């Protein structure tokens, strides 16, 4: 299994830890060399006085052609080579091999002796940690006290899983809505039934006055009603239940070209900069509905200069093909993949064709795949599955199908970008929050790290594999507490004791948190509920930095 994982990580220029690599080389009778390690390429921080939005110094146009075949975009030297399907040497994954590898792992997970062995090993790891704690706790405390100028507060932490649309807390949003109404009441901000309306008229049409709004009437907080109800949770993104307000304050595309949303994000970023030791990796959405989405998003990013050294951007792709197909926005699944990846390939081949997008991509560190995992698709991914261009039914493809085709495109894209000296992307999907155990298996093969991972509790074999390969897991116990799993049953502590690489993240501060520093709130609650020591907290914070998209210099 580790050989399989290593193969796919190297192919997509994602991280694989050195220790298992050294053991694998030993088994193969080879010697391990540090330079064999494959690492992602990050954009270094701009130097003092350097403009992060500079559109000069892009590499020249290569004149290559990017074209999709069987759901994967290949790069060709010219149109003639594309017609003959003779791609340049960027080896992508092979579907048949991938399915074979996956079936091998599925068989391994269900194998009796393997289950027994891994269960006992995990139990042993946990007991070993407990013994270590009993014996060395006092020594550890002594060492901590001797360590100068470092404590939990000034230990760097990264919020490894947070959605940009909910990165502010509810009070912040309420304050911002009231402030915007005070300043901009007569500004045209929205188009209602074909007619331009001012902010004042928009609130009047909703029978609201911002002065009367409270945190409770804003109603964006997830409560008891959202447990096991992902649909109700999604509706909480609409302040006061009005999608017009969501469009105005939390979208990058609207009548004021996303100005309010950019301002809120900049305020959140300045809070992080004031805190000095906190970073975040917010997700922005690309839906794959049409190919102009990238251009619009990057123009928003550049126009409002939404850059902060404390923010690393990620792109999330919601798995809602069925909705778009039902409304006839896309003819087949292949078109959706093309809309998501082709603009990025084109900006990589010729950065000057869309300088704004090329600048934005410099600050993007990865891709994420999001949606409700408990929705069952009923399709088993195999070599007989229809190709994405043939998938024209209204049904959503299965989770594994989505993951494979996203990974395959990212793998080829990364090789092309590394060749051009550009930054590469990591694949960091939501996985194991609900749904089948096979989701975790697909991500074990393809993902650099995952978010949630709760279902690892159900499979000792997979849990042990995640431990051996040190696959980072961003856990959000407060978010799970409102949606899928009560806080005290969260496996965070258990995973941490067994030695899995876990970090804490907030997911959606707007829905789950109360304070100005949601990440600290997350750590504080975990520390109280699980009785974590300072050392545990700092280790989790260190994990968050290691699994994030921060470059080594940062």
UniProtKB/TrEMBL annotation:
Give the first-level EC class, as a single word: hydrolase
PANTHER family, sorted: AMP DEAMINASE, AMP DEAMINASE 1
Q: Which InterPro entries match?
A: A/AMP_deam_AS (IPR006650), AMPD (IPR006329), Metal_Hydrolase (IPR032466)
Q: In which pathway does it act?
A: Purine metabolism; IMP biosynthesis via salvage pathway; IMP from AMP: step 1/1
Under which name does UniProt file this protein? AMP deaminase
| E.C. numbers | 3.5.4.6
Species whose genome carries this gene: Culex pipiens
Q: Name one GO biological process term.
A: AMP metabolic process
Asked if Hydrolase is a keyword of the record, the answer is yes
Kindly state one GO CC term assigned in the UniProt record: cytosol
What cofactor requirement does the entry state? Zn(2+)
Citing just one GO molecular function, the answer is:
metal ion binding
Q: Establish whether keyword Cell wall biogenesis/degradation is in the entry.
A: no
- Keywords for this entry? Hydrolase, Metal-binding, Nucleotide metabolism, Zinc
Protein family per UniProt:
Belongs to the metallo-dependent hydrolases superfamily. Adenosine and AMP deaminases family.
PROSITE patterns hit by this protein: A_DEAMINASE (PS00485)
Superkingdom, according to UniProt?
Answer: Eukaryota
């Amino acid at each position: 299994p580790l050989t399989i994982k290593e193969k796919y990580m190297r192919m997509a220029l994602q991280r694989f830890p050195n220790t298992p690599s050294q053991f694998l080389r030993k088994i193969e009778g080879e010697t391990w060399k540090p330079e064999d390690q494959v690492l992602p390429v990050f954009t270094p921080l701009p130097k003092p006085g350097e403009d992060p939005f500079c559109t000069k110094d892009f590499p020249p146009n290569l004149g290559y052609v990017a074209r999709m075949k069987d759901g994967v975009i290949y790069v060709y030297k010219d149109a003639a080579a594309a017609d003959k399907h003779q791609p340049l040497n960027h080896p992508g994954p092979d579907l048949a091999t991938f399915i074979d590898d996956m079936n091998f792992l599925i068989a391994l997970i269900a194998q009796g002796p393997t289950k027994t062995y891994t269960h006992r090993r995990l139990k042993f790891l946990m007991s070993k940690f407990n013994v270590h704690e009993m014996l060395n706790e006092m020594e550890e405390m002594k060492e901590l006290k001797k360590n100068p100028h470092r404590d939990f507060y000034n230990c760097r932490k990264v919020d490894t899983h947070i959605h940009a649309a909910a990165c502010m807390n509810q009070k912040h949003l309420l304050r911002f809505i009231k402030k915007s109404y005070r300043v901009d009441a007569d500004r045209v901000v929205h188009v209602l039934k074909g007619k331009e309306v001012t902010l004042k008229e928009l609130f009047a049409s909703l029978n609201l006055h911002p002065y009367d709004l409270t945190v409770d009437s804003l109603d964006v907080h997830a409560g008891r009603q959202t447990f096991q109800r992902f649909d109700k949770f999604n509706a909480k993104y609409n302040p006061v239940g009005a999608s017009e307000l969501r469009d105005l304050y939390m979208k990058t595309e609207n009548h004021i070209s996303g100005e309010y949303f950019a301002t809120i994000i900049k305020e959140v970023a300045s809070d992080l900069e004031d805190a000095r030791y906190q970073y975040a990796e917010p997700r922005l959405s690309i839906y794959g509905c049409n190919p102009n989405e990238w251009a619009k998003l990057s123009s928003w990013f550049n126009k409002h200069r939404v850059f902060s050294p404390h923010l690393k951007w990620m792109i999330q792709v919601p798995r809602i093909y069925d909705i778009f197909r039902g409304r006839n926005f896309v003819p087949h699944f292949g078109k959706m993949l093309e809309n998501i990846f082709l603009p990025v390939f084109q900006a990589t081949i010729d950065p000057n064709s869309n300088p704004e997008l090329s600048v934005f991509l410099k600050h993007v560190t990865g891709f994420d795949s999001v949606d409700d995992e408990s929705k069952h698709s009923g399709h088993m991914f195999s070599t007989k599955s229809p190709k994405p261009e043939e998938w024209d039914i209204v049904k959503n493809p299965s989770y594994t199908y989505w993951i494979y085709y996203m990974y395959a495109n990212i793998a080829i894209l990364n090789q092309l970008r590394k060749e051009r000296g550009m930054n590469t992307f990591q694949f960091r999907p939501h996985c194991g929050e609900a749904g089948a155990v096979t989701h975790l298996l697909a991500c074990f093969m393809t993902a650099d790290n995952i978010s949630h991972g709760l279902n690892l509790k159900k499979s000792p074999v997979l849990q042990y594999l995640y431990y051996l390969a040190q696959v980072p897991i961003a856990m959000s116990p407060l978010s799970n507490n409102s949606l899928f799993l009560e806080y005290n049953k969260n496996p965070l502590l258990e995973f941490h004791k067994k030695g899995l690489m876990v970090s804490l993240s907030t997911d959606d501060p707007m829905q789950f948190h109360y304070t100005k520093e949601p990440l600290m709130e997350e750590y504080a609650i975990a520390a109280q509920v699980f009785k974590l020591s300072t050392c545990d907290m700092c280790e989790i914070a260190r994990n968050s930095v290691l699994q994030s998209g921060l470059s080594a210099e940062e």
